[in-house]
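Lab notebook: predicted structure, single chain.

Context: the supervisor wants predicted structures on file for every construct in the current expression panel, including those that have not yet been purified. This is the next one on the list. No modifications to the sequence; it matches the entry in the shared construct table.
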Amino acid sequence: MRDSIFPAPVLPGGSGMKERDLMNGYSQYKEKSIYSMSGPELLLLLFDEAIRLLTRAEHALQYKNYKDFDDCMTRVTKIVRYLTDILDMSQPIAWDLKRIYDYLVFDLSRVRAGRERQESEIGRIRHILSELREGFDGASRKVSDTHVLQYRCLIRINIVPHEGAQYPGLP
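Prediction complete. Output recorded below exactly as produced.
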C-alpha cells in the first residue's frame, strides 16, 4: 500500500534506490564484516553488545519501559551463556571464567526479577563485563604482537615462509 500512495524516498544523489534496498545492502555489509572478523574481534564485539544492551536496559528501567528492559536483559543473558558455551575448558583460566559467567547469569536473573529493587546491580554487571572486555582486548593485542614479532624475526634471518603458510594473527 505504501508504494502506491507514498513513493519510496529517493536517496541523495538521485540514485533512485529505495530505503529497503539500502537497509538490505547495509545488512549484507554488516554480515560480511562480521564474517571477516577474527576470533578476538568477535569476542570483543560480544562484550560491546552486552555492555550496550545493559546501558539500554538501565534507561528502559528508568522510563518504566519494562518490555524493552526484559528484551535487553534476555539478550545479555544469552550473550553471557554463549560466552560460557565457547570456553575451552582444557585451559586453566576457563574454570575461573565459567564461575564469573555463572555468577553474571545469576545476577542478571535477579535484576530481571527485581527490576527497580536491583537497578544498582546493572552498573556492577556492566563494570564486570567491561573489565573482562579490557582483559581480553589486552591479551589479544599481546598475542598478536608476539606473532608479528615472530614473523618479522623469520624475515630478518631470511627464512621466508613457503606459499600458503599460516601464521596466526597475520593477514
